[in-house]
Amino acid sequence: MIPFNKPYYSGNEKRYIVKAMETKILTGDMSMIRDCESFLEKKYRFPKVFLTNSCTMALEMSALIADIQPGDEVIMPSYTYVSTANAFALRGAKIVFVDSKNDHPNMDEGQIEKLITPNTKAIVAVHYAGVSCDFSILRSLAKKYNLLIIEDAAQGINSFYNELSIGTIGDIACFSFHETKNIHCGEGGFIVLNNPRLITKAETVRNKGTNRSAFVRGEVAKYEWVGLGFSSMPSAIAAAFLYAQLEQIEKVQKRRLNLWNTYYKKLKVLQEKGQIRLPSIPEYASNNAHIFYFVCNSANERNDLIRFLKTNAIQAVFHYQSLHASPFYKLKHDGRSLDNADRYSACLVRLPLFFELTKTEQDYICEKVIEFYSNLPILVD
Ligand SMILES: *Cc1c(COP(=O)(O)O)cnc(C)c1O
40 CB contacts (<8 Å, ≥6 apart)? Predict the structure, then answer.
């Protein structure tokens, strides 16, 4: 079976873990945790990075740092991972879902303004497949209505909006190092603070609601409970593993992009026949090759394709089920139909994409996808 994903290993993880163990500093700002944070700050020009034990945690922290209160409204796409919405629902926010674009699973920025009310506090921008949202629209809305922008950049490592790294434009951004992401440490992530006003608060939130960071810096005589917070930090063991991956990010990205471009080239023939729709990347966005997906013409076709590939020992998978139609939220949703999000839920399929995928395996996958479509009618507009 060719799996959908295999976690990447650089080969240096064990060595760095042993090194971390030998320092006997397994937590906190003096350890490998700080080394990873500095690496990210330098490479991507993030003003302030705190490593977290997941992107989900980073999102939950961001809702607390943004001071989201019960009844506040937060606008975000419906076509996203549960954690994006759950983080804000935990604080009592009303989630206002936006439809995806017709030609991309990212939220349709043009639909946002009419959803803004006096209760709206924040917009959460999810960069699906690591492809940036259109910040020119988001920034002007944030300015006009005094809203925070929080980026769910879980999939966005090493991806850019024009020349700026994803994660440097919103007030807060959240990234994931889950093993399904381009680089990882099993479970992990980080939060970026771009708004200097929020850094001190974030320090408290990451430290169980205490001013321990100020104490460690010698700024206060003892540390105390000063607000609400989380236990958000990974151990230095996870950070050591992560450092071994960060060092190899360019190599990982080169390989993934190569695989992504090969899929695109080989499957283009199916798009030309109107049988599938390949991903589109807007001019302002780069491609970090996090996901190779395409959109089928119907749910049945998509499900048949996944089944056909499975019988040929290939694991292809669908993706999100729209959150506005979820068991938890459908009765809370205001009833607007979000057709594009529903279409991506029903018709989007993702193909295996991981560092170790070989040329032979990829050729075989493309061959099988094309074989499936050769038995289906050709649709041309
Ligand atoms: C992976 C992912 C998350 C969750 O990340 P974890 O690190 O597993 O908590 C959140 N949002 C999006 C869009 C994701 O892809």
Answer: 46, 49, 190, 246
34 lines ligand 1 (CB under 6 A): no
C-alpha span between 82 and 288 (Å, rounded)? 22
CA-based nearest residue to 33, from 232, 205, 208, 225: 232
CA of 367 to the centre of ligand 1 (A): 31
Distance CA 245, CA 45 (A): 19
The answer, as to whether pTM is greater than 0.70, is yes
Pocket lining: 178 vs ligand 1, CB cutoff 6 Å: yes
| Ligand 1 binding pocket includes 207 (Cβ within 6 Å) | no
CB atoms inside a 10 Å sphere around CB 42: 10
- Enumerate the β-bridge partners of residue 88: none
Domains and CATH numbers, the chain: 13-246 (3.40.640.10), 249-374 (3.90.1150.10)
For 172, the 3-state DSSP assignment is strand
CB distance 232 to ligand 1 below 6 Å: no
DSSP 234: P
Place of tokens 């690496």: 39
Q: What are the pLDDT digits (tens) for 266-318?
A: 999 999 999 999 999 999 999 999 999 999 999 999 999 999 999 999 999 99
Q: Would you tell me how many other CB atoms lie within 10 Å of the CB of residue 15?
A: 11
Whether residue 81 has its Cβ less than 6 Å from ligand 1: yes
Reading the block at residue 348, the tokens are 């989007």
CB contact set of 277 (below 8 Å; sequence gap of 6+): 103, 271, 294, 295
Given ligand 1 and candidates 4, 54, 56, 179, which is best to mutate, with the most ligand atoms within 8 Å of its CB? 56
